[in-house]
Amino acid sequence: MTILKLSFILLFSAMNSFLEELLWRGILYKQFIRMSSKRLGILLSSASYGLNTTMFGYSLKISVFYFLLGVLFGFLTVKSKSLLPSIMIHCTITILLILLGWIVMPL
Fold first, then answer.
1. Which pTM value belongs to this model?
2. Class of residue 57 by CB neighbours under 10 A (exposed 0-12, middle 13-18, buried 19+)
3. Residue 91's domain spans which residues?
4. Is 1 inside a domain boundary?
5. In a domain, 86, yes or no
6. Whole-Å CA distances, 24 to 34, 77, 97, 101
C-alpha cells in the first residue's frame, strides 16, 4: 500500500468519523433526549444511524451492525460527556473496515 493510499484512508476515516459523530451523537442525539430520555435518545439516534446505511445499498444485516455501533458510540458519548471517544473509536473501526475490504474505496 502506498503512502498516498494510506494517507487518503486516514484522512477519509478521520473526517467521516468526526462528521458522522457530530451529526448523529452531537446534534440528533441531543434533539432526541430533549423529546424523550437519554436511553431512548441513544436508541433513536442509533436506529437512524443504522437505517441510514440502507440508503447506500447495504443489507439489513449491515444496518443492524451499524445500529449496534451507534449504541456503543452513544453510550461512550453519554458516559464521557464528550464526542472525542466515539470519534476515535469510530475512526479506528472505519480504518479497519476499509483495510479488511468491508468498505470499498475507489483507490
1. 0.88
2. exposed
3. 11-99
4. no
5. yes
6. 14, 11, 20, 24
